[in-house]
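Blackboard transcription, Thursday session:
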Amino acid sequence: MESWPPGGSGPAEAGPRLRGLRGADLAASASLLSGAGAGAEAGCSAPAVAAVLPAGGSGERMGVPTPKQFCPILERPLISYTLQALERVSWIKDIVVAVTGENMEAMKCIIQRYQHKGISLVESGVTRHRSIFNGLKALAEDQPNCRLSKPEVVIIHDAVRPFVEEDVLLKVVTAAKEHGAAGAIRPLVSTVISPSVDGCLDHSLERARHRASEMPQAFLFDVIYEAYQQCSDYDLEFGTECLHLALKYCHIKAKLIEGSPDLWKVTYKRDLYAAESIIKERISQQICVVMDAKEDEEHVGHRLEEMLKNELNHVKVTSGRDLQQIILEQCYNFVCVNVMTSDFEETQKLLNMLEESNLSILYPVVVISVQFLDYESVPFGQKMENLMQIREFAKEVKKTNILLYGLLVYYPQERITLTITKPEQRQELKRRKKLSAY
Amino acid sequence: MESWPPGGSGPAEAGPRLRGLRGADLAASASLLSGAGAGAEAGCSAPAVAAVLPAGGSGERMGVPTPKQFCPILERPLISYTLQALERVSWIKDIVVAVTGENMEAMKCIIQRYQHKGISLVESGVTRHRSIFNGLKALAEDQPNCRLSKPEVVIIHDAVRPFVEEDVLLKVVTAAKEHGAAGAIRPLVSTVISPSVDGCLDHSLERARHRASEMPQAFLFDVIYEAYQQCSDYDLEFGTECLHLALKYCHIKAKLIEGSPDLWKVTYKRDLYAAESIIKERISQQICVVMDAKEDEEHVGHRLEEMLKNELNHVKVTSGRDLQQIILEQCYNFVCVNVMTSDFEETQKLLNMLEESNLSILYPVVVISVQFLDYESVPFGQKMENLMQIREFAKEVKKTNILLYGLLVYYPQERITLTITKPEQRQELKRRKKLSAY
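(Written on the board underneath:)
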């Protein structure tokens, strides 16, 4: 179990320590947080963060019979993407999902099938506020037979906002620690108006002075739990805004955080189309470069990384030790560089792991196997053999939806530079991008 | 030139006549309107409707260099779909588009390439309100050298809302005639909040009591033109809401019309993805059944229409006379029924027209050629010949991106019923749907 924030082994209050972090610092902190769980585990007194996801909605606005959080995108339910986005954040300890009794079994199947970790299920209420309240109750200490413990800060997010990033989660949590409550906001797309009872315009609101309240939001647990315990049945039935409850019942003025356009909520059928296209684009923008030995990373890996970063959003270079994790995080594109060996050892290892992972069941995985061979010391016969070998591999793995491309780079030992591979690599990557778009 | 509303040859005020139309009546009226231009043309004193489209925006929220109204969807600029949606409404006489001087030539090319009719271009202003004002000035009678005439009612719409339907346009125009101003509204997706100066929550608005103001809106021309002439520079620079101007300067309380989810505005990149998917879906949901003689429509056409309507949204049955218009309206799916002839005469005619139209340049056109032949009177040799013939056709037209499928139905003369074709047709249609999705 990992705690948040990391490194907090002492009993000191974490608030002041985080108070100074802004902008670029926050981003740096976000990436630091994710790798530093071990330190926190020792002390374990650092404040903990949990998340509550109301997922009891019926999705009536979608115009489809399946509740929108369970609608499939590339054959995987929407909520599974949202859980994945939260799971990736190492400092979120528990995720409580509120679903209807009717969908409880389906939700359990989703958790099992997509190997979600640290999820607790509670039954949702008839309204959004009641579902959130049920989630908070499960986290409160006074619940019997509960493996969950009360967090210091709780994030409230929507099951139908799958594109939440660690950066904005950290910003709302940090602000909630300081202010008691915080929420993401976005500029209004349309002017908001107030109708009169006869269906005519009463007045319009100045667009620049208002914002859309989005998710995620975060609260000191005691603040929001207190607010929910005090609030009226009318609030629970007709209210929509958690920040409003914190203000009304605990006099906490939430800090508002400007969010990115990614925070939008899947509401209508068109949003499912958009989500599908975004997920496809993300998959095509993620690549992992696997090197066969540490010294080669210096030589080729980092220059390849630099080059690829101009064209792709998420580039990872690894010597293969954390491949299992990378595959689990659903990277679908790999460049495997074999410098030291002539028998595609690294590529073979990667292909085995991919086949075992079943990653390619949903979506094709693309592997480009690059092999550097010394022009002078490798005879023509071996060159042909290499070509045949990669073709055989490709034919074999295609059966399991893995598309393998080979790239042989012959070079005189003293003149290996990346400029040789640049154009071919680009072409391969473009071909890959095209392929993965279909 | 067609006027609106149709049939209004007398000088009577059209308002009261329309006042009673609501719900289903309106829908019926909408479809009647489009075919009744000729009657109105004779009298020509019926009130006219024009539309103004501000299209001078830079699309900065999209995060792409091309202004969003010019972003291609299936290789056709977004604004062209919006123009098409307005053009299809026969009672909209003129469409004035306001574009920047920089994009004027590009806009002219779009009009030419997609054969838009009745469009006038004016230069946009630096803000949305200034662009609309320029459009209105072009429609006002006091402009020199202008082929446009002042309409009674003017629709204001956005270039980036391509999915507007005739039904909602008629509703806002009808309401504008009665109330002076009218606009489409939608429920709010997110709660709207008001931030304090220090970036904290000041208060949140009750979601149920507010609405998002969308487009289209419509106004008595004199009302909105008066409002724009009176309004301050501050309004023109920072305002966003035309309904507000009508209220502030002409004391007109606009009638609010509940719109469909289709009215949404393409604002972010994700909206382009959604628009593309919706356009693809629409194309696959539109089908035209071509019959080879009028008497067969009774026999097969209407039963086929009935059946297809259960599975597709837009089904048209024609004896071929208005094929040119149907092709121009971008129908991509055809079922061509040849009952009377055995030589695919109707199919050949349709294929010729399709090839001439260049429709299939952007997107494949699917034609299912159905041929009924009397089982007893047609010898086996001819049956084979028919099969070969359709294959040859298919091979030939595939070069021009037309996908032709043949369906031969052999029957004893006295027993021709549609139940024979039902399962095969369905399969073909499903196959077509799949094909057109790629």
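Lecturer's comment: Residues 34 and 325 of chain B are 13 Å apart (CA to CA).
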